Amino acid sequence: MRRWIPAVLWTLLPLSACVAPSTELSDVEALAVQEEVTATVDAFVEALNRHDPEEVMSFYAPEADLVRLGCTNIAVGLETIRQRITIYHQQRKDVTFSMEVAYVKPLTATSAVASVRGGTSNTAGLFWSLGMVEQPDGRWLIAYEHQSWPDCPEARGFHTGGAPSEAMLADTLQ
Questions:
Q1: Is 48 in contact with 97 (CB distance < 8 Å)?
Q2: In terms of Cα–Cα distance, which of 157, 149, 159 is closest to 123?
Q3: Residue at 5 is within a domain
Q4: The model's pTM
Q5: pLDDT, tens digit, 9 for 90 and up, residues 110-146
Q6: Any idea what the Cα angle at residue 99 is, between residues 37 and 74, rounded to 5°?
Q7: 11 domain-assigned
Q8: Based on the structure, what is the number of domains in the chain?
Q9: Residue 60, Cβ neighbours under 10 Å: how many?
Q10: What range does the domain containing 169 cover?
Q11: Angle at 114 between CA 112 and CA 119, to 5 degrees
């Protein structure tokens, strides 16, 4: 009987390598993700209040398919989002952001969703959902962003690059 044990182990060992690793996080791992994401969002809000577009953009993942849904308008792509953020922060230096993380849902050890609430000096009831991804260097960056607030403007469609249009400028300043 003992002669069969090594044969069975050698048969099962390669099969165990095919099993996907568990993505479930321990309580300690989940808490670490929550704390890291919360610290990143807090730093992001501080950057928003300094109105430095490049600093604000440093919180966004560099992927070309980055998505930002500003209430009812979708911007796709890092450069399109950079244009919108630059225009906003150049023309709205008087706006201050007061935001807090309401909840962080870790998805894996390197991805999470943050629910953020608060407002600005000219908009009450601002809510953000941020899809966050951890980079190889340990920084957490925004890969997906959705903002909503009362009285959102009517949807104008996608913004996918190129020079800012009049509609894009109008959206950005609302």
A1: yes
A2: 149
A3: no
A4: 0.75
A5: 999 999 999 999 888 889 999 999 999 999 999 999 9
A6: 80
A7: no
A8: 1
A9: 18
A10: 24-173
A11: 165
Virtual torsion, Cα 33, 131, 38, 84, nearest 10 deg: 150
Helix 78-91 to helix 166-173 angle, to the nearest 10 degrees?
60
Inside any domain, residue 6? no
- CA neighbor of 140 nearest in space, from 160, 114, 164, 172: 114
**What is the domain-level CATH number for residue 131?**
3.10.450.50
Contact by Cβ (8 Å): 58, 135: no
The total number of residues written for the chain in this structure: 174
The set of residues, in sequence order, having a beta carbon less than 8 Å from that of 87 and lying 6+ positions away, is 164, 168, 169, 172, 173
108 touches 32 (CB < 8 A): no
Contact 40, 137 (CB under 8 A): no
Mean pLDDT value across the chain = 81
The answer to whether 88 and 172 are in contact (CB under 8 A) is: yes
Dump the DSSP string for the chain: -TTHHHHHHHHHHHHHTTSPPP-PPPHHHHHHHHHHHHHHHHHHHHHHHHT-HHHHHTTB---TT-EEEETTEEEESHHHHHHHHHHHHHH-TT--EEEEEEEEEEEETTEEEEEEEEEETTEEEEEEEEEEEE-TTS-EEEEEEEEE-TTPPPP-EEE-SSSPPHHHHHHHH-
Residue 13 domain flag: no
Separation between Cα atoms, residue 151 and residue 133, nearest integer Å? 30
